[in-house]
Amino acid sequence: MKKGLNSFQLKIIGIIFMVLDHLYAYLNFMGMPIWFKYLGRTVAPMFIFLSVEGFFKTRSRKKYITRLYIWGIITEIGNTIINRYFSRPDDAMIINNIFLTLAVTLSILALIEKIKNDKKYVTGIIGIIILISLSIFVEGGPIFILVGVIFYAFREKKSIMFIAYAILSLSIIFGAESFTLKTLLYNNYQWMMIFTLIPISMYNGERGRSIKYFFYVFYPVHGWIIFIYSTYLLSK
C-alpha cells in the first residue's frame, strides 16, 4: 500500500466536511461555528478532482457520466419535493446538486477527448459551447467547471496544476465588495477552496475500498435529513 490517501479516504474526508458545511448552512440559527463553512469550501473541488480521476480510470466513461446525470436528476426531484412540503419560515431552500456539476464537467472533458482523438472539431466545439452555457445553472457554475478542466489539463503536471488551481481560488477574492479581513472571513470565503490542495496533494493514485453506491445515496439523503430537521426546529 502506497503512502498517502487513496480515493476512498479522500471521499470520507469530503463527506465529513460536507456534513459540517450543511449543518452550518441549515442549522446556523443554532450557533454553528463558521469554520464548518470554511472546511466545506474544500469539498466540491475535492469531489471534482476525484471525478476527473474516475474519468481516466473508469471502464466506461459513458456509463459513469450517465450515472452522474441520473443521480443529478434524482437529487433535483428530491430537492423540489423537500422544498415544496418542508418550507422554512425564513424561506431558505435546499438547492445543492453537485452531481449535475460533475456530469457537465465530465461531458466537456469527453468532448475534449473526442476532439483530440477523433478530430470531431465542429461537433466537439459546439457541444462544449452549449455545455458551458448551461453551466450557469449548475452548482458552482463556470468556476467549478474550470476547476475540472484544470485538473484534467494538468493531471500529469502536478506543480502546474496546483499553481493554476491556486490562482483560480485566490482570484475569487476580487469578487468581494471589499478586501477587508472581515469580508474575506465572514462573507466572501469561497477562496478558501484553495486548501483543497492539502488533501489532493496527498492522493496516492489508488482506489482503496469500494462501496459503489454509498456516496451517491449519502450526498442527497443527508442534506434532506438535515434540512427537514431544521424545518421542524424552526416550526416549534
TrEMBL record:
<feature type="transmembrane region" description="Helical">
    <location>
        <begin position="213"/>
        <end position="234"/>
    </location>
</feature>
<dbReference type="Pfam" id="PF05857">
    <property type="entry name" value="TraX"/>
</dbReference>
<keyword id="KW-0472">Membrane</keyword>
<dbReference type="InterPro" id="IPR008875">
    <property type="entry name" value="TraX"/>
</dbReference>
<keyword id="KW-0812">Transmembrane</keyword>
<feature type="transmembrane region" description="Helical">
    <location>
        <begin position="92"/>
        <end position="112"/>
    </location>
</feature>
<protein>
    <submittedName>
        <fullName>TraX family protein</fullName>
    </submittedName>
</protein>
<feature type="transmembrane region" description="Helical">
    <location>
        <begin position="183"/>
        <end position="201"/>
    </location>
</feature>
<feature type="transmembrane region" description="Helical">
    <location>
        <begin position="12"/>
        <end position="32"/>
    </location>
</feature>
<keyword id="KW-1133">Transmembrane helix</keyword>
<feature type="transmembrane region" description="Helical">
    <location>
        <begin position="124"/>
        <end position="154"/>
    </location>
</feature>
<feature type="transmembrane region" description="Helical">
    <location>
        <begin position="160"/>
        <end position="176"/>
    </location>
</feature>
<feature type="transmembrane region" description="Helical">
    <location>
        <begin position="38"/>
        <end position="56"/>
    </location>
</feature>
